[in-house]
Amino acid sequence: MGKMSKQPHESRLHERYLRHSKKFPNVWCAGCGIGIVLGVIIRAVDGLQLDKDDVALLSGIGCTGRMPVYVDFNTMHTTHGRALAFATGLKMVRPEMKVIVVMGDGDALAIGGNHFIHAARRNIGLTAIVVNNATYGMTGGQYSPTTPLGALATTAPYGHIEQPFPIAELAVAAGAPFVACSTVYHVQELEKYITQAITREGFAVVEAVSYCHTTLGRLNHWGTAPDMMRHLKEQSITLKQAEGMSDEAKRGKIVRGVFVDRDIPEYTQLYDQIIERAQREPALSLPKGAA
Amino acid sequence: MTVQLTTRLMQGDEACAEGALAAGCRFFAGYPITPATEIAEILARRLPQVGGRFIQMEDEIASIAAAIGASVGGTKAMTATSGPGFSLMQENIGYAAMAEIPCVIVDVQRLGPSTGRPTSPAQGDVMQARWGTHGDHPIIALSPSSVRETFDLTVQAFNFAEQYHTPVILLMDEVIGHMRERVELPDPATIKRVERAGTTVPPEWYKPYENFPADVPPLVPFGEGYRYHITGLHHDERGYPTERPDEVQPWLERIFRKIERSLSDILLYDQDGIEDAETLVIAYGATTRSARHAVELARERGRKVGFLKLKTIWPFAEEVVEHAAERLHHVVVPEMNLGQLVLEVERVVGRHKVRRVNRADGEMIQPAEILAAIEEWEWVK
Fold first, then answer.
1. What is this structure's pTM?
2. How far is A64 from chain B (nearest CA, A)?
């Protein structure tokens, strides 16, 4: 019954959230998972009943970077790798806004890797969604920080010899209070995680695995878009299933789940306390009891 | 309210920080670097006192990005750095020019290239301020020559940024940044502050990059009911990416036009003794101080020397220079580099008229060196 009543509403989401003035179709290849992530973000925002004026969607450069232009939020397509830094400035002066940042794996972890770990360490209240397609799709399939070891890429014509970044583990180690991972096959799970991430006050990371069939898939003969979707289904395991598995057994598997969900004070809220304190007492005075 | 002047012994970097606050700056993002660090330190203490926000980012790329992000949120924003950091900021300065986001970038110049000499003055970033980014776009760059002028031009930088929706660069140098002078600061109530114009149309009619009025786009801060798109791609009036040649170049011409049509407002300079001069000295920044002294010495010796101090160095005051140099035999241009703004002077007045005085060894140019260049022309004549 619940599903039935949700249906007519869902069918109108595109009217409510996509920009009517924007020229369609979108830039993504048929079969690409980035549109699925966009749909998930829209359903999450709708489910939370957020006011569109209070939502900002920022991106960097690449296939995922093209996502914000289609959506009727406050949207900003920034420079390569820097979306989190732009978003940090916006969040600092508009702490009441829900600032969502979408990035690709190259954008977030190669050119933007420094900003990614520091935003996590700082724990500023952003929702960081990393669409992991394991390649540079827009430029045609060069190896990225998450390209699997041994895979072919246009810049690894003899096979890739670098270890991929485990995004979720990296985010946990860098200090993010909420980190989750799912895939574009597991749409409802992804929606649940992105919804949770948006509601968290600190830096919340969701990795959405969505391998690029046009470049990486073609180069490595991984099959068509549906074949690769099937791969996401069959080659992913839950955190619970991963427990106790050897590293050897886990190789090549996508581990889904909530990696961490912990309370750490959020940056702009701490800064509000700084403002309060600065107006009350002189700077550089140590708190009582400090050495 | 009584008009009160606050007299203080103040450092140039401090004057920059206080000027920013006086202009209404309420966000600063930066990264430590000599000789600009003091600006960040002062604003870390001062901004929260006035309800503003400070953040030390992980690098200069992030600093300029955060400043642009804050400006998109409607807050006047600044970052400050020196040469190495200024190099890192270039891509995002281009983004601010492309997306027409107001922001102020302070570059307290030190001797380069590369790490160079961190605590030595230079004016080596003049051309980088103009041409450091890829692609064509206009820029406004101001260069103060004293502590008080640093205060005034920082305020002015914010006003230009907000007025014309553009990044504005404040090119200081190590001498001006670290020098202490007795200054009288103006009563805050008397300081002219420009606020972002915004729009009067309802959201459904709103086009963020409309050429109206006066070629300056009516950008409204995020979060105020006008949802729109900002991008570093070439875009149309709505902010959506475009590849149409008939939209791309007219847009580019508009962002130049919005600056060019207001040159009388933007070009700031002081001149004296130009009417009956035979020789003209053109200087900017800290070098102005030696140049002024040299001009006075030359005049004491009976020479007719005019003086033009440029406070706005970009856009280059070509008509002013052209007019001032028209009837003159000689133009002397001292700079703490191996010849940068002098290229513009030579372009406008012709190479044969121009004598360069350059130092790029980390030391100030001495008045005697400029005087010698003024007098050298006597031989030629």
1. 0.96
2. 14
